[in-house]
Write a structure and sequence with these properties.
Length: 120
């Protein structure tokens, strides 16, 4: 993800924190465990799609970051089901390809396991 895409990502976190429903921030449909719940992904994809139309991929980067954001959310147990149970309709909405998502989730779980091993 390019710098402008990263800025959009972080701005969206701030916007949802300030204007989202604080009562249901832990609910995946709203905030999610890592802040990358359904509302975040829907809005990020819409922002990215409009950004591409206005500025082009060279400015925004080649990916919306939805796949990585969803993987982070899954690793932090924010989703109600395992990654295999997220409906195709949702993944299609965010242009997320399931095999690539599963690969990213496994990579991140491996990173977390490696970090959990105490130093001797
Ligand atoms: Zn984020």
């Amino acid at each position: 993800m390019e710098i402008i895409g990263s800025l959009l990502h972080e701005f969206l976190h701030v916007f949802l924190l300030l204007h989202g429903c604080l009562g249901c921030m832990e609910n995946w449909v709203e905030g999610g465990a890592s802040g990358h719940g359904e509302a975040f992904l829907n809005t990020m994809h819409a922002l990215y799609t409009e950004g591409i139309r206005l500025f082009g991929r060279n400015i925004l980067g080649k990916e919306s970051g939805c796949m990585v954001s969803l993987a982070i959310e899954i690793v932090h147990d924010g989703t109600p089901d395992a990654e295999n149970n997220i409906p195709d309709e949702m993944l299609d909405r965010w242009d997320v390809w399931r095999p690539r998502l599963i690969q990213e989730v496994e990579r991140r779980r491996g990173m977390e396991r490696d970090e959990a091993v105490p130093d001797r």
